[in-house]
Amino acid sequence: MMTPALFSVCVLAALLELDTTYAFQLTFSRGIIAAPIFSLLTGDIMAGIQVGVFTELLFIDVNPLGGVLPPSAVICSATTLALHMLGAELYLAFIFGVLFSLVFAQIEKYRRRSRFRWMIYWEQKIVQKPTSVNRAIMISLFSSFAINFLLLFAFVWAVSPVILWIAAHMPERAQIACKLAYMAVPWIGLAALIPEFRLKTR
What we know:
- Helices cover about 80% and strands about 0% of the residues.
- The protein has about 200 residues and is mainly alpha-helical.
- The protein has one domain (about 5-200).
């Protein structure tokens, strides 16, 4: 179901996703910052704060170094809060948010590899006409923004009825298991931080 709030979340998420590597890099793409911003649009501030903390802790030990492309905290947060806004339980929405952030990371790897030919084309253009560098940058940013928006919106639109059906037919034990898994997320994140603190105290 298309709503102004859903459209706004997808637009803002597509923009904040550029903050990861493409532009700005003002740390707005961190889960602890992005999720509360999204919750201002969805109307559930407490859910945004909780998702932001959980996302931050879950992805805290994955760094974008070398060929490693971590799951997107922006995509995870936006997907979770958008699905929650459309009626999904927060714990189920978060599970789907994490899954889509993992899928999105793989899509992003493919996009970066396929962009190589694009860069060669623009390199030749810039050599011939140096002023075309600004045009190349703007086209690259806009295309990344548009693809991010379409991927996020399509996933939320397709999954929202599925997740509601799953919630209605899920056995009680499975619901309890999913809730416990959701509540275990911050403990997993804190456990990942223990070695970091131990190394710093030596």
